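Page 47, continued from p. 46.
Same chain as before, 115 aa.
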Amino acid sequence: QVQLVESGGGLVQPGGSLRLSCAVSGFMFTFSWNTMHWYRQTPGKEREWVATINSAGDDTNYANSVKDRFTISRDNAQNTLYLQMNRLKPEDTAVYYCHAWPDYWGQGTHVTVSS
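Result:
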């Protein structure tokens, strides 16, 4: 069984920062072999892709809405995925999920950006 557990969400003022983590475990899943993703979702909307990092951690891609503000990274020794979020905006408010192919998802962590 594969488990993805997100943490690090919370309430932050506009312009602030948060760092999300996703701890991955599972007998049949080798974290360091897998490309990992962050998604987010707000009520009434479809889940939105945020960022992707390859298995080695040397190739990343971002949605235009977060480019130059968010940074995805990983620690393969710790089986952990990260999302550093800077200059947060109210429109970044969402539940953030980490994801691995084919259909592994965490439970999500809430991020609220509000003054």
